[in-house]
Design goal:
mainly alpha; single chain
Length: 76
């Protein structure tokens, strides 16, 4: 039986996940020096998941706007 095209996800999950796998949690804890090598992988402490924020466009200053304007006119 085939899967309907509306149910298929494109390129995996595009959203940010709010739950890490055990391996990802251990990797983060190792980076923060909060996990010992001989420790059990069960009962791990919580690890904060950073949400990716969309970058805001910077406003052009008067100098940057004046420098970009002549270059755009010359490309016709």
């Amino acid at each position: 039986m085939s899967l309907d095209k509306t149910l298929k996800t494109r390129l995996g999950s595009s959203r940010s996940r709010n739950v890490l796998t055990r391996g990802e949690r251990i990797a983060r804890l190792l980076e923060e020096d909060r996990f010992a090598a001989g420790r059990s992988p069960y009962g791990l402490p919580k690890v904060r998941v950073q949400k990716a924020l969309a970058g805001k466009k910077k406003k052009k200053t008067a100098e940057e706007g004046a420098a970009a304007a002549p270059a755009a006119k010359g490309k016709k």
